[in-house]
Amino acid sequence: MASPHRDNWNIPSGSYRQLFESLSKSDPRLKLRDKKAVRQRTPWPPESVRIKHLQLQTGKNYTTVGKWADVADFSVYLQAGRAIDESQRNVFLIEGLGPELIETLGSHFNIHPSFFVDHERVEVFSARPSNLFDSGRLPSGFRWKVVTGGVTLNYFEVVDTNTDLPNFSLSCADSGRHVGATRFRGQLSSVVIVRRKCSIFLVEYSAGGSAYIVLTDPPLSWLRTFTYISDTSATKQVHDVQVFPRPYQGGYIDFVPQDVQLAVRNGPLRSSMFSDLKHYLTLYNASLPQPGGAESPMLFAKKIVASHYLSLSSFMTSALSHQQWDFSRRDDMSHFDISAVEQSWSDIQSWERRLNEYVSDIEDIMLKLGIPFQEPDTSHMSMLSWSESVVDFQFLRYQFHTLLHRAEQINGATLGLASMAGNRQGHQEQQRSLRESQRMRALTLVGLVFIPLAYTATLFSMNEKYMPGAGHFWIYFSVSVPLIIAVILGYLILDWAYYSKESSHGGSCLSRRSFAGFYGGKKANTE
Q1: Among 58, 126, 186, 378, which is disulfide-ready with 131 (CB 3.0 to 4.6 Å)?
Q2: What does each C-alpha distance from 149 to 25, 109, 199, 296, 370 come to in angstroms?
Q3: Mean pLDDT, all residues of the chain
Q4: Using CA atoms, how far apart are residues 71 and 49, in angstroms rounded to an integer?
Q5: 216 near 277, Cβ under 8 Å?
Q6: Residue 91's pLDDT is what?
């Protein structure tokens, strides 16, 4: 029987595969690939990869010394023995992760398999007992370079797909990561929030050099959604939509100092972490306070991640402001019916859930990087270097906590609006019921008048001397009118008997109320 690891991971047989299997007792996630990725038919291995080897030169900027689109060629390059100068700063930028690449990197750089699993997981949470989702470690096991040599940073890209989205169930077809759609005023927006990961592993050599292995996600080019074949079918079919996304509102603002921007006059593409990291390492590394240090790749990665979170904060602020704007400066809320309020409440629930996830992901990054959970200290801002990231993530944490509190307030306001809309609808239903009751009373009165007339006419029609124009025709009215009066009096007596259970007032008031009801008048004052 085939090993469950081979069926799920497809890692080539060898020493690293054996390490993968033996360590699954320490990390249960190593036993299986992410089941959500399998259900979503995420390609494994990926359809394409990009690999670049950058090396720090004497000019204090990184230069590309090799690039590959085939894992086999890259593996040969590493095994050649002369690929990495261990006295230099090296960076391997990698886009796309597959079994052959895991075996190549893991074996050559002696990387713990959990590093790859951290990057591979796409399911954020799951209640299924058999699923092994993107769970974390104890905070004491988080610290990068203290406890572990690798770290995974979760972040989000806000992009405009410039297309009509089919539904809410979306993911990136290449990476399998969730794509969050947003609804504004009943319509799905073309702007989506793409979940991303950047995983960084540092190898430090005794010769004084280092090697960074940076795993990144491919850019969004295809949206994958699952739709039911029919309304009654439980079978889903895959539907991919090609998109040509653009960064939301142009993307994040460049974080390097403006005097450096004036000198370089070039900005990041903002299409992927792969291209943005290469841009900063090759053009701006010399502008760092310590350009020859080993922290440059991690520093730029942190800055890019923080910039994406700031762009996400702007989008969420806009979304919440639109919702509050719809509730403000209104003379009345009559245009909000129950269905519209329920839809608005559902959207707020989605935003509140997402904001909780964003806060958790930011705090996860802060734990891994050893950043204290406290409000940013603005008393020494003028003394901080632009390369500093502690205050950035403290500010982002504070900002998203503020947005979460704001979403909770809007949620409470929406519940109040739902109560108002429900009361209004109940009042409208009550008024409609009263009008229907008045109409029925009028019809009843008409019936009380015509039923005696019809009965008397039927009775007298048996004799021709009571026909209209005959001498005894007056007897018809002398009989009919007393019958009408008797029937109406009988109705009033029954009406009085019904209402006397709820009222102790006199019969004259009841009679006024009954006759007012007949003719659609206002209810008589019984006080």
Answers
A1: 126
A2: 20, 11, 11, 16, 14
A3: 82
A4: 8
A5: yes
A6: 96
